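target protein:
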Amino acid sequence: MIKIYSKHINQCKFKCRIAIQFFVFTLLLAGHHATADVRTQADSATELRQAIDKLSSRSGPPGAHRSASEMIPLSLLQSSIWDRLSANFQFARLEHPTIQAQVEFMQQGLYSLTSNLRDASPFLYFIVDEIDRAGLPLDIALLPLVESAFDPLALSNQSAAGLWQFIPATAKDYGLKSNQWYDGRNDVVASTHAAIRYLKRLNQSFDGDWLLALAAYNTGPGNVRIAMQKAKSAGLEPNFWNLKLAKETRDYVPRLIAVNKMITNPHPYGLYLPELKNTKKINTISVGRPISLETAASFANISEKQLRRLNPGYLTGEIPLGGPYHLTIPVEATEQLISQLNKRKLNSAEKTDASTHASAHVNLPPDSSSMSATKNHQGYDFIPYKKYVYKTHTVKRGDNLWDISRTMNTGMDQLMAWNGKTPDTARLHPGEKMIAAFITEENPEDVTGKLINYRVSPNDTLITISDKFGVAISQLKKWNPALWNKNHLRPGQPLKIPVQTSSDL
């Protein structure tokens, strides 16, 4: 139970925080010095002001108004990632003897805890931001600390791998590709998206109870349901604290809460948090072709060791044929890598060497798909860089998946997949955030080649357009997000088609 005095203190802290943030924001507006992070993450200063005014005018305990959509604007004004987290933690106010026991356990290893929190950089801001976008409690951003100590290459004796410790079967269910060259469980970006979808689905299946959902993430939903049924049979309320689960799971959930509690108020516990700013540290870009991390690192003017650390999913140090063709890079190296990928062209000898090198390592069977991939690799230069961005939609009363998918310009099945829903669990809740991913052009004036605008004629198909312009269908879909989940074209539909200019040949 939450202690009464603690609740009053938190209310006072919350109100003071609101007043301070509003004062800081007013100064920012007066001086016209709003930071780039605020400008890029909030639609406008007006939206930010309205959000603050809305919160300031409300009454009641802080916990009554903790939705992500309301708290995101305030969090952008915080300079430390720890301040952003502690201002939004929901579980840290909980009290239970097992939580206190885990606090004492964590205090015995403060050096390791501090070291693990330091290892969370540079991924922590990305994880926090993705969880915020999805509308999940920010407490969950520290789940990788409990799961893997923020080690993307962690491997358990049950074959669970990566920051989020996916076992092979669950990884497959949530679209994490795995082979001898790439493991999506080690890919921080891909596994974070998969973990969010999985956690959202677990939360829905346990009627919004996050403690049960977290227990299910650790031990499996079937074990949690069996324990709930046993608790009911014993006349107990089937909440997490009354369940007879494996010791690992009984410690797992309280340990996450204990960590969040310590981060919220570190000094009484003797914890000194590493300095981590509330700013973006990494970008994810699409390179569109096989490339070694050594080459990409030289293009970006960073060390290969640094790039490997950011891309632990590529097990052999290169992006193989078949991809996925994305790289995670430091924000400060983005423009350099973009420039090199867009301006450098491989001569025919280099293309042949690159193809031979890739084939020697990949050893794909000589089927049509691998032949096509090799032909495309030899026949085209790097397609200009595109950045992944997101659209969000807040569910309103009366919304349905069909209408939302049309509004967000994507397929309904893909929309459900991105948001951890299935036809059986596709119920929408007012205030829920739906997410769709898209890719956009970057620096179009600097790219190699050019894009042409094309109108689909009545007899056109993706195959005929691909043949006509010598562009792979995958590239047509890449430049036209409306085609991501469709193969059907309608007459008059506008398309962007990447073509080579005569100076590029």
